[in-house]
Amino acid sequence: MEHGPGGYGLPGRHESFWMETTAETAYPPLPGNLETDVVVVGGGITGITTAVLLKQAGYTVALIEGDRICRGVTGHTTAKVTSLHRLIYAELIDRFGSRQAQQYAEANQAAIETVASFVREYDIPCSFEAKPAYTYAESAESRDSVAAEADAARSLGLPATFVEDVPLPGRTYGAVRFADQAQFHPLKYLLHLASLIPGDGSQIFEKTRAIEVQDGGGRCTVRTERGTVTARAGVLATHYPFYDSPGFYYARMDPSRSYVLGLRLDEPFPDGMFINAEGPTHSWRSQPAGDGELVIVSGMEHRSGETVDTREHYRSLEAYARSVYPVRSVDYRWSAQDYITNDGVPYIGPLAESHENIYIATGFRKWGMTNGTAAATILTDMIRGRASPWAEVYAPDRFKPAASARRFLVHNIGVAEKYIGGMISRPAGDLADVPPGEGKVLMIEGQKAGVFRDREGRVHAVNPTCTHMGCVAAWNSAEETWDCPCHGSRYDADGKVIHGPAVKDLAPRGG
Ligand SMILES: Cc1cc2nc3c(=O)[nH]c(=O)nc-3n(C[C@H](O)[C@H](O)[C@H](O)COP(=O)(O)OP(=O)(O)OC[C@H]3O[C@@H](n4cnc5c(N)ncnc54)[C@H](O)[C@@H]3O)c2cc1C
Ligand code: FES
Questions:
Q1: Residue 91: inside a domain
Q2: 10 Å Cβ neighbour count for 427?
Q3: Given 400, 422, 438, which residue is the final one in a domain?
C-alpha cells in the first residue's frame, strides 16, 4: 500500500506506468521571439504527431509545450489503438448518415496504420502489438446494441463481427469484435517521434505556456510567457483549446474523468482489449512489464469536479477488478480526463470561420490515440492546402439540430447552474473543519477560500474561483487538486494550473 496524493488506504503507487517507465524530457524553453512555418501548441499525441507530419511535408515547426511533453492526458491514457470506440457506429449512421460515419471509421482505422507505419519505419521499441478489440455486453439488455454495432461497423467496411464468446471471466452476453487492432506503450512511441522534430529549422520548446493567439493577414502569432512565435499557421493541440473566441467550445464539450489501475494477476490475461457496453465503464488490456505483464483496468468515469470523494472511484475500481480476477497486487493508480462533445465526434479543423490560420483538435471522447493521430493527418492536409477525405465529419463548425440541440441546451443549463451556484452560494464551516489530507471551500472573513490542509498540518489556501470563466473549483481528494466542474481546468493545491483551459493560476488567499 502506497500513499502519495490522497493515498492513505488507496491501492498502488500514484504514478502512471507509462511515465514511470520513460525518462522525463529536457527540451529548452523558448528563448525569445521566433518565426517559423507552423507553430504547434501542446506536446501530447496530437501535437507531436502533427509536428512530425508537418516536418516530413517540408515545413519548419515550433512545438510549444507548457510543461514537459507527454505528461498531459497522453501520459495517463490506457493506449488502446483501435477504431472500436465502445458503441458509436450505429449512432453515427443515425445522426450523421452513412457517408460521414464512414469518414469517422476510415480516419480511425487509417490511424492504426499510421501508428504501425511509424513503428515500422523508425523501428520504435514500444511493445506495439496487434490485438483484437471487444465491446462486450455485461447485461442481456445490451446484447442487441452490441449486435447492432457489429452490423453497423461492418456496413462501413470495418473488420467487425458479432461473437458469442468473450475470453474474460464472468457472464457476458456477446460482443462486437474488431480484428487487427493494436496496443502499445504510448510514451515510448511518442518520445521517439518527438526526437524526430528538432533539426532543419524545427524545434521543441518546453516549460513555455501559450497565453494568447492572434491571426490576420495570413499570419498567426502565439504569445507565450517567454516570447512570441509567428507562423503561417497555428495548431492548438492543447487537449482543450486554451484560446476559444469565438468558437464557444466551452459550451460544446464536457470534461469526463476516469480512473486507472495497473494490476498483477495470478493468471495470464487473454489475448485482446476489452470494454463493456454499459456504464460505468470497465475497460481492460494488458501490457508487457518487466518479466511479466501488467493488466490495466480503467473506468468509473464522472464529470470532472463533480463528485464528493474521488477516492471512492479508485476503491470501486479495485473492488470491481477483484470481483473479476484474482488480483495478486495493485501496482499503479492514476486518473485523467478527456472531453466529450455534444454529438460525440471530436472537433478537428479551423478554430472558427474568422480564424482560418488557427486549427484545433479536441473532444476525443477517450479515443484520442486514433482520433489524435487522425487529427494530425487531417490538419497537415489542411495546412498543405489539400482536401482531407475525413474533414467533414469532424468540422468544428458543424451543427446538427437533431443531434446537438438537446444536449447543447442541457449542457448549458447545467453549466449555468454551476456557474451561478458557484458565484452566489455561501459555503459554511471554518478551518478547524478541514482535517489533514482534506480540502474544502470555506468562507473566511467574507471571502471564499479553497483550503487544503496537508498531512504535516500546513494550510494551503487559494481563491477557488476558476480563472477561466469564474466557476468555483471543487477539491479532488484522490489527486489533491482543485478541479473546475465547468470546463475541466485543474490546479494543484497551491493554485498552479495543471490542466487548461485556464492559463492563469488561482490567486492565493491568506490562511
Ligand atoms: C483514463 C483515460 C483512458 C484513455 N484510454 C484511451 C485508449 O485506450 N485509447 C484511446 O484512443 N484514447 C484513450 N484516451 C483518450 C486519449 O488518451 C486522449 O484523447 C489523448 O491522450 C489526448 O491527447 P492530446 O494530445 O489531445 O492531449 P494531451 O496529451 O493532454 O496534450 C496536450 C498538451 O498540451 C499542453 N498544454 C495545454 N495547455 C497549454 C498551453 N496553454 N500552452 C502550452 N502547452 C499547453 C499540455 O501540457 C499537454 O502536454 C483515454 C483518456 C483517458 C482520460
Ligand atoms: S474551466 Fe471554465 S470556468 Fe473553470
A1: no
A2: 15
A3: 400
